[in-house]
């Protein structure tokens, strides 16, 4: 049975997607095109540079030199950090603290497994750090989701085998990564976006259903 729980961050434990969107929208506006909320769906779970590539595709902006791409990523991130440096506990998604606390009480080891390079500041602001036995974020992985690296590293940090791990993910790229890692994948959100998940639930507020997986 399952002994380890791996949680994605953005969209699973905290509602940061809107800040990512606001920063990308601002960048697109500066470049002279519109970037909609529907376009933004494609960026979920995807690395910062890959997100920029998708955004530029939407705006039909081509052939920028790599130093310009780096500069645009830096601009986006500095706005994003401005936004998240003000977040507080109200932005923790419903059920997160209860579910993680109960899992811990049942002896389940817990890791954060996120593509974000900003996990430290977010966990500090939300005072969630103590709920995790290991934190693997975008600073520690080379290959972004859908590559399984982030989840394999998280399992290793907890001392578990992939087939003992359950992954909680809101992005299609993350579900793909979890399945490639050989783990059980729980999709968070809407069924239609999360093809391939072993189970889909609306959020971590489904505490009973989640705990059952570990019995
Ligand atoms: P950063 P997750 C992902 O976090 C986000 O879903 C994605 O939109 C973002 O581009 C990526 O982190 C990188 O984040 O720019 O903060 O390094 O869902 O894997 O927790
Ligand atoms: Mg996510």
UniProtKB/TrEMBL annotation:
Gene Ontology terms describing biological process: carbohydrate metabolic process
Cofactor note as given: Binds 2 magnesium ions per subunit.
Entry annotation: catalytic residues: 8, 10
Residues in coiled coil: none
GO molecular function, one term: magnesium ion binding
Catalysed conversion reaction: beta-D-glucose 1-phosphate = beta-D-glucose 6-phosphate
Key word Phosphoprotein present: yes
UniProt superkingdom: Bacteria
Enzyme Commission no: 5.4.2.6
Cofactors required: Mg(2+)
Site (Important for catalytic activity and assists the phosphoryl transfer reaction to Asp8 by balancing charge and orienting the reacting groups): 145
Binding site for substrate: 8-10, 24, 43-48, 51, 76, 114-118, 145
Residues engaged in binding Mg(2+): 8, 10, 169-170
UniProt xrefs under Pfam families: Hydrolase
Keywords, ordered alphabetically: Carbohydrate metabolism, Isomerase, Magnesium, Metal-binding, Phosphoprotein
Phosphoprotein found in the keyword field: yes
Alphabetized PANTHER family for the sequence: 6-PHOSPHOGLUCONATE PHOSPHATASE, HEXITOL PHOSPHATASE B
Family: Belongs to the HAD-like hydrolase superfamily. CbbY/CbbZ/Gph/YieH family.
NCBIfam families per UniProt: bPGM, HAD-SF-IA-v3, PGMB-YQAB-SF
Record protein name field: Beta-phosphoglucomutase
UniProt organism field: Alkaliphilus serpentinus
Gene: pgmB
């Amino acid at each position: 049975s399952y002994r380890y729980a791996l949680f994605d961050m953005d969209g699973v434990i905290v509602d940061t997607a809107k800040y990512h969107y606001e920063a990308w929208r601002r960048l697109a506006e500066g470049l002279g095109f519109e970037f909609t909320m529907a376009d933004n769906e494609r960026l979920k779970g995807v690395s910062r540079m890959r997100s920029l590539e998708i955004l530029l595709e939407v705006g039909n902006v081509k052939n920028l030199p790599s130093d310009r791409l780096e500069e645009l990523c830096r601009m986006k991130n500095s706005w994003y950090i401005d936004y998240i440096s003000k977040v507080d506990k109200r932005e923790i998604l419903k059920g997160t603290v209860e579910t993680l606390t109960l899992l811990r009480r049942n002896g389940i080891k817990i890791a954060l497994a996120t593509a974000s390079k900003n996990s430290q500041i977010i966990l500090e602001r939300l005072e969630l750090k103590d709920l995790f036995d290991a934190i693997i974020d975008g600073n520690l992985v080379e290959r972004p989701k859908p590559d399984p690296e982030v989840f394999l590293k998280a399992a290793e940090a907890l001392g578990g085998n992939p087939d003992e791990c359950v992954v909680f993910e809101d992005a299609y790229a993350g579900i793909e990564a979890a399945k490639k890692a050989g783990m059980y994948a729980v999709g968070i959100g809407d069924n239609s976006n999360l093809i391939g998940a072993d189970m889909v639930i609306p959020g971590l507020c489904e505490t009973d259903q989640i705990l059952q997986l570990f019995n």
